[in-house]
Structures
1.
Amino acid sequence: MKKVLFISYLPAPGSIFVNETFRTAFGMYGEDIEPVVLLMEDSVVALGEKYSPESLGLLPIKTVHRYIDRYGTKVLAVKEDVESRKVKIGPEWNVDLISKSNLADFIHDFDLVIFM
Amino acid sequence: MMIIVKYPPTRKISREKLSLAKEGDVVVLLQDAVLYALGDSKIDDLKQKNVEIFALREDFNARGYSDDMSVVDLISYEDFIDLVVEKGEKAAG
Amino acid sequence: MKIAIQVMLHPYTNQDVDTAIRIAKEAVKKGHEAAIFLFCDSVLAINTAARPVRGDRNIPQLIKELIDMGVEVHICGICFQYRGLERDKVVEGAKLSGLPELASLIYESDRFVNLMA
């Protein structure tokens, strides 16, 4: 089994990469891979309870929840990035917050760390 | 773990990636990240942590810099493949 | 050893596809297997309708040369459709794939070089 961490850091919804990170992670379940998703930097905005790209006509994030529930995908976010961007995390997210100071140790538990 | 960085020192994520390196890791700088090889506090930090750092010579030279201007070891693309084989079983990029 | 490389950003606008091509070529020269997975806008790299100005490299042609050397080139199918690319313009030998193929590459390859960030 390979442990793969997918990290989304680019801004949302100005870019597609939070959605693409989740989509990629979900695509891993056909193999013996355990994907984990970490949101950091400006990607954490997507966790906000009032985050609504669809109000701009952009691709919604809501669809990812169905797959997170189906697969039990673990999702984490960097605590300092959530706080500095004043993100109030929506109740639909089951996210573990990780402190920046623990990130180096955390990523070393994975076989692959893929920033997107 | 091998950590591959491509963005220049001015990109925040590039600096964040370098902060994730631990003792025994190998960092490879390619594309615009070779600008770190001119000298940067991040490079000093990595050296202190006993992280091995390499920059791709061709990417460095193509940006107008001569080998003697680099504060890190320069490697060819061929060397890079050997390094990936030798040290890249666990990788972050 | 099998070395897989993933790219995400636009060819010509960024150096990534060029770096991927170079790494794949060096890997094959050293007797390794190599595969490239083109994701998001990097799928544009397989469009043979591209007409770069004289003096610039022809990326689809370089990809064709890689394929001829035995490098697997995978294209994210959804990304391809999103960008309205046409099947008959795809570099010969490049494979319309998807995330299951990416998962296989990640699982089966001995090394994975991510050039997305």
2.
Amino acid sequence: MRRSWIPVVILWVAYTVLIVVATAQFTWFPKEWAREAAVVDEAMLLLQYLAAPIMSLVMAVMTWSVIGWRTEGGAHREDGAPVRTNKIVVTTWLIVTSALAIYVVINPGFVGLAEIRGEPSSDYVINLQGQQFSWEVTYPNGATALDELVIPVDARVRYDIISIDVLHSFWVPAFRIKIDALPGITTTAFATAEEEGTFEDDVNLRIQCAELCGAGHANMAMPIRVVSEAEWIEYVEALATDG
Amino acid sequence: MKYLVRAFVLGIVGYAVGVGLTMAIRGGGPTDEVAVVIGYIFALMGWLGGIGGIEAFGRQWVGKSVEVSTARGWRRYFQFSVDHKVIGIQYGVTLLSVLLIGGIAAMIMRVELASPGVGIVDLDDFNKIVSMHGILMVAVAVAGIIGAFGNYIIPIQIGAQDMAFPRLNAIGFWLVPPVAIALLMSPLLGAFNAGWTSYAPLSVTNESGQILFNMAIVTFGMSSILGGINIITTVITMRAPGMTWGRLPIFTWAGLATSVLAFAVTQFFAAAVILITMDRVAGTSFFQPDVGSALLYEHIFWFYSHPAVYIMVLPGFGVILEIVTTFSRKPLFAYKAVVASLFAIVGLSVVVWAHHMFTSGMANFLHGPFMIITEAISIPTGVIFLGILGTLWQGRLWFRTPLVIAFGWLFNFTIGGITGIFLADVATDIHLHDTYFVVAHFHYTIVGGSIFALIAAVFYWFPKITGRMYNEKAGSIFGVWLTVFFNLTFIPLFWAGMNGMNRRIGDYPDAFEGANKFASVSALILGASFLLFVGNLLYSALWGPKVGPNPWNARTLEWLIPSPPPEHNFTSQPVVIGSPYAYGVKGSVHAYFPDANEGDDPGDGSAQNQETVLA
């Protein structure tokens, strides 16, 4: 009974190792199509590793409760040790949890915030208008499209987003970026695609409305096609003359 | 039943009068939203008067004396009873029924989501079912523990004969059935499809069922506020002699913290939906672009609805701490730090709302502060976990159903807490917000943290309330079943969310079929477990073996009086002389009854009686 911290610590370490190994083995995230996606995935992975010892501690105590601390004797079994509190344990716990909280606020918190919500310069600006239940793209030369979004690879694009009716949300799972489309207020998001590809290659190369907007919300999606910069310029010019 | 019939009749008459008056004054049809609003207000007054408000309040206004129900037996549950124990059971049974209705909505959703494409319900109906499921379950989580056990147990735990304001308590409960009726009637007006969050401007332009949603929220809010002020007053003013703050049972502390929060913030949700109602029926433009702001709604809404998750989970903390202490027979570890943490959470929870809005387009400078405060709330929550783990540590654990479910709670809420960090962090939240990751997360915190605690509380206090023991084997099988299939349902949904599936959709890309099918099958098995739960409770309430006052050999005051408790709880005044959790301390006593006759004291006299039941 007195030495029961030993099996708990062993279980704690074992669970932690198990979770860390499993985390490292498994592919958690969909393919990263943009530079911004890597920042988000890295942050998520870091949080997953930090979570391992915390989850494991709870699981270790739970496991040993069932194996080692279970007693028979029903309602009238003996009392446990009358330990009301332990200053050292409480203080250590507070210091460790506070330190962890401060650490995640700084990294990935503020580090990620700066990367994702900073206002970097952009190579192109594309306007997007959300409406029940579709997206309308306006390219820098004024050409518009309703069927797909075509963007240049390796160029940072700023998306200026607005809604003409209710709230929508501009989400590209392949880029890990999201910002709501509001009526009357323009919001912005930045993404730098790093590889050419289409919606047919990866279902996450799509703009998905992520804010409940009515009956057609589920299908309010627009395919994205990433092409070379030259091809993109050609595409938008052709679109402008055709339109 | 007479009063219930009268309440329905006066409710319907009130509705007709309200609608008729509106039509007479301004013309228009009976389903115009103005008419529905006025009709609802009259119907609510008719209902409250009919159920017993006329006798309990109305007579006083004309100089007559107040009459309150003195019915006994099952009839009192259908009346305007002022007995806190009756009201607790009324809350419990009503909200467990709502839980089952909300659960059926969930089953329909999971069947629809079992495969991509439109199946049993179309996309708009799916949104309406999501919205209905959301608000029904939020109501259960907000009021389940505090309404049922806050009312039943807190007055007894502090040695009081009733709540401070018994009639107000009854009004608080009888406001709840109109909420359920309004929500369930809303399909007649086209239901509401804007989610339980009801973000404007969608909630300003959707079908008229939204009006009934708004009215239901205002009504439910009144109930929460009345309940809150009642518990605050009761705990502050009605404690038995010697029940100092340092001796207050932890469930009572948690109930007090919850009530402070409910009393302080509930009006904001009501305000938000009243503004929506104004935009719809009075031509105002609070949430119209250019004149007003859609973001304004989100701020007001989350100013209530983030603290609301703590209104849901704080009583859960209280229940689990109470159960862990009883079943490990050890003092509650770090009692003072745990109490301080409950109130630290109350304070912090009102200044974190905008972490729901990291992708809303609000000003960029707001992100940092809200991220810091949100991460900070993990520190007091961590102390609560320390209290639980420290109490289990080297305890003498007796695994009965309440403890089994408490273990499920502990596992689930840890996952809920950890995944909360992902959503508190701006960078990761930008991807995960409004995805199934969020859906899985809040089911881990709200079902894992509040509903599991509610169910654990049902088993823990079942013998006290009914005087009979539930079936232990069926109870613990249910506990394990519930925990396992809850996890199998929601774990795959974390993956779906991370990998690009957003929430509130009746159709999704084929890539997510595997995870969804797995979740749907698990969810149906999870749903089936409730047959065992309800069956066990009903059977045991009628035919379970009788128990003595204290089947768990616990120490708080409710276990020192007979099961079920007599009408005024205590036949003689209890005097508190020590901590309720002084397990292992020789000769320690929490409370005694100085005026009791030898035969009255159930503390020792019935110990043999208990033995026979437990064996």
3.
Amino acid sequence: MASNEEILAGLAEIVNEETGLAPEAVELDKSFTDDLDIDSISMMTIVVNAEEKFGVRIPDEEVKNLKTVGDAVDYIAKAQA
Amino acid sequence: MPRKVVITGLGATTPIGGDVPTMWRNALKGVSGARTLEDDWVAEFDLPVTFACRASNPAGEVLSRVEAKRMDPSTQFAVVAAREAWRDSGIEEIDHDRLAVAFATGIGGVWTLLDAWDTLREKGPRRVLPMTVPMLMPNGPAAAVSMDLGARAGAHTPVSACASGTEALAMGIDLIRTGKADVVMTGGAEAAIHPMPIAAFGAMQALSRRNDDPEHASRPYDVDRDGFVMGEGAGALLLEAEEHALARGARIYAELAGAGVTADAYHITAPDPEGLGATRALKAALFDARVQPEDVVHINAHATSTPVGDKPEYTALKATFGAHVDNLAVSATKSQTGHLLGASGAVESVMAALAVYERQAPVTINLERQDPEIPLDVVTSPRNLPAGDIVALNNSFGFGGHNAVVVFRSI
């Protein structure tokens, strides 16, 4: 079980790996598309990497609801619970 | 008169140099790019061939990590070479709607394809990367170069095995002559040093087995040649309509004066033993370029170092040039670079353009005992080309019976 802070840090690492964005730019209130400029293909790569890292499953139909980094952190935290 | 096409930018990433100046310096010196492969998969699969000519600068180390992640290695090489050619041309202001791309590959994204297959088998469909399709598609290099340069007059991918790179230049000439573009980034890229293509080319007995002596394995025209050596990398040539180049005061390496492209329609892999298709390509190229056979002083030959391939090219040269064949300074640069498949025609065209511009023919290495049936004047030590108006050719032939010849004329 990872804390929300740990999930955010892990997610920031995955986003950095995929896009080159600095990990500190990945903040809870940031929108993946509008603020971080992440396209749908990169988003799917991030989701699959997050699934592996956190041992959760994020169904494809849920991905469109993950608008912000915070949405993703909350989803992963709940899925782990 | 059709529009004249000139070459104003050169780029290359090859087994004998990660950029044009390094490659050219080595090509004149005569070095081998062949090395024993250190990869674990060589022993894992007990491959019959354990060496190849790796690119001296892995493209993944030249590009940023994030850029490289989204590109197959073949596309990485294409982007590296095209960026060098673009910078080299000094071009700044350009109408991007008049800029096209013709960038070839012989095999395409074979690493991406086979990695994805392994992932599917080992980890299931969820783990297959969403970028797999755009990374493996053969038009990936052309598309990436088009995006990188903002080339909006079309991005094309000629695919004709080992003639692909040279066909890209032929296509570039057509695009400019027909008025579809004023500037075209042409080239070819290949990254197929993977165990499957090595096994497959090995199965058809096309590769040299000189595993204990890689540096002497690629030996075109030598009696002891026993197959080609796989290479990887890319070559890029920026073509411009002459008036476009002159208007911006560009440095011009050479005129790309014409091309000849034919098909053998004889056998899927073996060249026509009489070299008829190659002869027709040579004659068509000379006719297209409006040059006489006697004007030609230098040839960058296809010469892959296979027992069956090198001779028909000589037969074709003899049929085209008659007695003048003895006056041609012939360079077989695959002796140094190995065979870059769909990139070979582009890399060798970079060398042919430089040969005309610098008036020097690159060196053929490993020619110890020349095949008496191929009595060409092979350049084995640095050789100056004559002053005045000169013409050079680059020949490329591919599985499928594809023949492509391009003509370089001094400015």
